[in-house]
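Hmm, how's this folded?
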Amino acid sequence: MLKFIKTFSVFVGTIIGVGIFGLPYVALKAGFPTTLIYLLFLFLIAVFLHIIYGKVAVGTKELHRLPGYVGEYLGPAWKNLSFFIIGLGLVGALLAYLIIGGGFLNSIFSSYFGGNFLIYTLFFFISGSYLIFRGIKAISLIELPILAAFYTILALFFWKARPFIDPSYFKGVNLKFSFLPYGPILFSLWGLSVIPELKEMLEGRMESLKKVIIAGILVSAVTYLAFIFVVFGSSGPLTSEDAISGLGNIFGSNTIKLGFLFGVFTAFDSFVILGLTLKKIFQYDFGVSHKTAFLLTILMPLALFLAGIRRFIDVIGFTGAVAIGSEAIIVVFLYREFLRKKFSREMSIFYYFLPIFFVFGIIIESFYFFSR
């Protein structure tokens, strides 16, 4: 039971990242009903994709990350393509964590100790990089306390927000932004990169892994709904892109700082876990040394940040729709080939429909991203 709880906490800690802070703003722009429909639909798709990838991981003797599995079943060309796509997604996620984590630290401490956004982002970066260097054992020891602190702060935040929640905010729909929720919600429900870690922690037991996947994504989705209800329901038209800043005029500075602390916990937790995942892709699937893999992992998102790519909603929207959408397509092709090589008759038209769905999402998001 303890092993299950630890594994569950690592999975939920991976999924619930900075994407949560973009969802109230998405609800503001597209409308809560539209956001809810996307959340329910993408929840089902995310569960399905995580489970079929888990079957590939458990059903393969060799220890890989996604590019390694793709190389084994689909060949070296697909392996290189998958590495590029996964790397793009993980670097985009790490960049988003830097943007929001550094911003929240700055909002909490700059009035006490001085400094600026860049300094606090570098502090966030150095602290997370240390744990990435140490590895999964160091992370799993702190995962459960961090998750407990996360939900404690969320509960306190909910209690403070209750008197300000206005049900009328949840009725509107804006068709102009009807596609906006897709990228951020897909980004927010994605924890596929950590599935091989969960396989290791559960010693290859597929039934346990399936339970962790379903429970973890369900708890994450419910958490997102609660967060949207609290933030968007109380701030309405004042909802900001980072969710917390827009609440200042409603809750006061002390509660807002609690919200920023909530954000730091969330961003830091996922930054470490996904950073470790990218590092292990370099190590296990491309034979790179530990130190070189570590440097490649941490320096790429830092370089993009220093180059000035710092618009949070754009980063999570593009990463979700384009990078994660492409990764999802590869997972479907991987699973189809896995079934063929295992002489399985489990095949469905669903495996042909899904890639078309994600291609459609990539095209639309790319159009919106580059036209802004």
Remarks:
- The chain has one domain: 2-371.
